[in-house]
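A quick aside before the break. I want you to see a complete sequence-to-structure record at least once, exactly as it would be stored in a machine-readable document. Don't worry about memorizing anything.
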Amino acid sequence: MVSVVIATRNSARTLPYALASLRWQTFRDFEVIVVDNYSVDGTRDIARRYGARVYVCGNERSRQRNYGASMARGEYLYFMDSDFILHRQVLEESVSLASKGADAVIIKNISYPGISRVARARFYERLSYIGSGAYEVARFIRRDIFYRVDGYDESLYANEDYDLYLRLIRAGARIGWTKISYELHIGEPSDLKEFIVKNYYYGYSLKKYFKKTGNALHALPLRHTYLRKDIVSTLARRWPLGLIYIPLLRITQGLSVLVGMINKSHRQNDVQMKPCKNRPL
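That is the input. The structure line, written in tokens, reads:
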């Protein structure tokens, strides 16, 4: 069995698409666990309508995912975001790779470009990450090795998935990559303001991530994968403006994160922890 764990917070806009894509999976032996962070928009009602087991837990997604894993019955864990749509073979291909020896699986991650110019830039940027080994993470993980590396670091709410992946690698986990199936991210920012606010919020957590991991590649304002010949040539043909817009967006992102690192007003350690309720709602 695969336990699909979805952390939510006011996710009513995208969650129906995410859960509907699970209904079309070719692999059928799975359960869905939604761990909600005290939403007020009907998220939990939507999850129940789609047959998920629903729990309530705060304050951030790392804690929610760990809690969902503790309630899981499956041999495998798949941590799915509430704003993702899955190719119908994601679970089938991941289980197949695990049956051949993979302890964790990296599923190709693609941004839906039709939301905004920011989303279009993220589409090409994420394409450049595929196969890089530096900017990819494993979301499908054997439950035993997930606990062997102590799960998600609950002090992080940005790059927490990269932190987990680095610990999986250090533990000797065997990694598989999907070739056919992929995740489609439909939750990219709708405009530049939303993009800046989001990265500002992540700033404090990223400061702790860099201090913990020393991962200098993730601190660069422009990632080297963007300079891949196939990406550059594709941009030149399809979206020449992107050759300039993507680097400028990355610099804007870096400045937003930097301000977030410095500002103390939104630090999560100052927020009282919300309780986790250990019965499905």
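Two observations worth writing down. Residues 2-190 form a domain with the Spore Coat Polysaccharide Biosynthesis Protein SpsA; Chain A fold (CATH 3.90.550.10). The longest strand covers residues 175-185. We'll return to this after the break.
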